[in-house]
Amino acid sequence: MEYARKTTPPYIIEKREDGIYIFTVTDSSRQMVDAIFDGLEQAVEETPADDVVLFLLDGSLSHLNPPLSYTFQRAKDFMRRHALPPRRRVAVLYTNGLLVSLLDTFLSSLTGYNSDFSITRFFKADQRDEAVQWLLSNRTIQR
Q1: pTM of the full predicted structure?
Q2: What sign for the dihedral angle of Cα 34, 111, 66, 68?
Q3: 12: exposed, middle or buried (C-beta count within 10 Å: 0-12, 13-18, 19+)?
Q4: What is the pLDDT of residues 24-79, one digit of tens each?
Q5: Bridge partners for 55 per DSSP
């Protein structure tokens, strides 16, 4: 499978032919947080309005310990810019179980997390294939 790939530390962004945006995180800096939201913006812009944004956040190479206050502010800014948030499915690969519970709590505070137009699911680092299958399994998220 061919896909576009942009490699700029501390992250790697890939867009696969099947429409999945894979974002591989290699550190936990503000620059990484900015890059995640820039990548999400790119995915939203490039995905037709009647389709679902498919986003795989791969934190298996890092401990995914982003600056939470800054991350929360970027998320609020993103939601503010998108009055009607894009339909999206997000799979998160992780290595640290404690972080997953913190991330889940953080995401739960955002409008649209696991709602009618957004579904996020967490997978252990060795479940990459399952995460991709889940992203592709159902592209029908209702508005």
Answers
A1: 0.75
A2: positive
A3: middle
A4: 887 878 888 888 888 888 888 888 878 888 989 888 776 667 787 898 888 888 87
A5: 21, 90
End-to-end CA distance of the chain: 31
In 3D, which of 59, 47, 42, 135 has the Cα closest to residue 94?
Answer: 59
For strand 118-124 and strand 88-94, is the pairing parallel, antiparallel, or unpaired?
parallel
**What type of residue sits at position 50?**
D
Using the structure block, give the residue that is written with the tokens 């945006």: 21
CA–CA separation, 41 vs 58, rounded Å? 17
Give every CB contact of residue 98 below 8 A, 6+ residues apart in sequence. Answer: none
98 and 61 Cβ atoms separated by less than 8 Å: no
- DSSP type of residue 115: B
